[in-house]
Amino acid sequence: MKGTVKFLHDEHGYGFIETDEMEDDVYFDLDEQDSDLQIEEGDEVEFEQGEGDKGPKANDITVL
């Protein structure tokens, strides 16, 4: 799935991705991603959608 990083909280290590396919934004946790991931608000990304405790969650994020 593809989307755009809508919000990133560097200090706490989480953010949200906006997609055209889903109504809700998709949560991600930087601690659960590849340690080499360099990501910023506005980046176009590709990811695998999973389920988190409170809704959709992004896994295996790649910056496009």
In words, what does this structure look like?
The protein is an all-beta fold. It has one domain: OB fold (Dihydrolipoamide Acetyltransferase, E2P) (Beta Barrel), CATH 2.40.50.140. It is 0% helix and 55% strand. It is built from no helices and 5 strands. A 5-stranded antiparallel beta sheet has the order 3-2-1-4-5, with no helix packed on it. The N and C termini lie close together (12 Å). The model has no long low-confidence stretch (mean pLDDT 94).
> Which percent range describes the beta-strand content?
over 45%
The number of helices is: 0
- CATH level 4 superfamily: Nucleic acid-binding proteins
Shape: globular
H/E order of the elements? Answer: EEEEE
Topology, number of strands:
5
Instruction: Report the CATH architecture.
Output: Beta Barrel
Task: Classify the fold: give the CATH topology.
Answer: OB fold (Dihydrolipoamide Acetyltransferase, E2P)
Helical fraction equals under 10%
Q: What is the residue-averaged pLDDT?
A: 94
How many domains? The number is 1
* Strand line-up of the largest beta sheet: 3-2-1-4-5
CA gyration radius, whole angstroms: 10 Å
Derived structural class? mainly beta
Poorly predicted sequence stretches spanning 5 or more consecutive residues: none
What is the makeup of the main sheet?
Answer: 5 strands, antiparallel
